[in-house]
Design brief:
binds NADP nicotinamide-adenine-dinucleotide phosphate, FAD/NAD(P)-binding domain, five-stranded parallel beta sheet, 309 residues, alpha/beta, 7 helices, seven-stranded mixed beta sheet
Amino acid sequence: MENIAIIGSGAAGYTAAIYTARANLEPILVSGQLPGGQLTQTTDVENYPGFADGILGFDLMDAMRRQAERFNCRTLSSVVKSVSFPETGPRVLHLDDGSDIEARAVIVCTGATPRWLGLDSEEKLKNKGVSSCATCDGAFFRDVPICVIGGGDSAMEEAIFLTKFASRVTIVHRRDQFRASKIMVDRAMNNDKIEVCWNSVPVKCLDVDAGKVTGLVVRNVEDNTQKTIDCGAIFVAIGHIPNTAAFKDCLDMDDNGYIITQNDSTYTNRPGVFAAGDCADHVYRQAITAAGTGCRAAIDAERWLETQD
Ligand code: NAP
């Protein structure tokens, strides 16, 4: 039986791996559907401390993987399909290849996937002006108009943050009312740089042929007319989907599927099962916060194991 199985290979998973490996717990890490996690989908990462000139997301994750493997963490290229987390006895991971892993403790670091609009042009312009993270990419777009899609707290937050860089921010929302909390809406609406395009859905991101964002075509859902909003970047803020479906029958989650951890720790409701990173965090969602909670989960798991027979 394994001491510790870690599910997920993003910043939280590899940080948990580094810490548990250095504690001689010989972790095994199941890398999941997207080895390296969300950071492998971005280009330059400029806000991860320690890299004065920035680092490519892929290179950062590759370095974390090598750092974990240097301390003998084993990485398995599989996906966890379902789990069995009993109150006592081994925790079991059922993998997509039909095999099982039994472990004394498990750290869940499965992350979250940004929700996208599903437009072909959006896909083609990702990392070329289309982004899902203003904190990560906003600073690349200075003194240009920017569009933000969505009407929730994330859209408000991203729009407000982007006014630091943008010449103008247009929030494109599909209804005539925001879903976001009043305080966030007030903040956004009191910002001179922010305007709203109501009742509108994105139809096409321009310009795929030019290989960069030059505008957004939107359709008004009331009168079906279309117009183009000139912009140099498009931030899609229509929510995230936590990758927690495999745990829905055994771990406590909030209404949006984020794993609930106990009393400001990484403990879940099941003994010996810990959660870290974006699968348990809808607020911060940064590489550095994921790494931080991965470290906390490793320490929580190590101390919990010490209390077991
Ligand atoms: P959210 O509350 O689910 O809002 C998603 C928004 O995107 C909604 O306005 C929705 O429109 C719109 N949308 C969804 N699918 C769309 C589509 N296909 N095309 C166009 N628009 C679409 O997600 P969120 O804003 O990421 O927030 C998630 C949770 O985190 C919430 O509980 C939120 O309060 C919390 N959060 C809090 C803070 C904060 O307190 N500072 C910051 C960020 C997030 P409809 O309104 O029409 O459904």
